[in-house]
Amino acid sequence: MERNAAWLSIDAERRALARDLAPLGETSWSTPSLCAGMTVREVLAHLTVSGAVSGPRWFAGVVRARFDFDKQVDDRLREQLGASPAETLSRFRSTIGSRISPPLPRMALLGEMVVHGEDIRRPLGLVREYPEATLTALLRYYASTDQVVVAKKRVRGLRLEAVDTATTIGKGDVVRGSTLALIMAMTGRSAYCAELTGPGVADLLTRSS
Questions:
Q1: How many structural domains are present in the chain?
Q2: pTM of the model
Q3: Are 10 and 110 members of one domain?
Q4: Which DSSP string corresponds to the chain?
Q5: 113: domain range?
Q6: Among 26, 122, 184, 205, which lies 20 to 30 A Cα-Cα from 154?
């Protein structure tokens, strides 16, 4: 996916997530997300960082955190959380159209929007029909790299077959399912393995847990 197309897809995912979360009641914001130890509100604040913190600011934060990257991520999240869920959502909404980002590939930013978007949506019972082009591009991206998230290593020696997009990647024991379920499983969301079939699922489940 070329650079401008990736940015437009990021905008589309930010817009869709903001729209999905707009009707959320106050208590729903404290729902545990699929990210261990984080609520859906905290994950949304984390997503805001990707559209609000530039490369130089990100590096400055790393230095302040003494190169403790987990602390850096948490510090930035707390900066964007705001005083209320409404403020958290408002801050996230302000990133739509932003071209500010930490030093990450555009595809990593798009992947973060889809994967963390599902980390938020699934516990809330929300469903999004993602564009086929977005999911196909992300499946290929994650199968090719461990740069930001360990994904390539998880699917090594497996053949991924996306039944909804007719995309096939890799060689080995077959893991078959929707493109979204494959993406989520290969980025460590083991719950999505229940939506997959094939002799390679057991291996992927072990690697995703």
A1: 2
A2: 0.91
A3: yes
A4: --HHHHHHHHHHHHHHHHHHHTT--GGGGGSB-SSTT-BHHHHHHHHHHTTT--HHHHHHHHHHTTT-HHHHHHHHHHHHH-SSHHHHHHHHHTTTT-----S--HHHHHHHHHHHHHHHHHHHT------HHHHHHHHHHHHT--SSSS-TTTTTTEEEEETTTTEEE-SSEEEEE-HHHHHHHHTT-GGGGGG-BSTTHHHHHHHH-
A5: 3-124
A6: 122
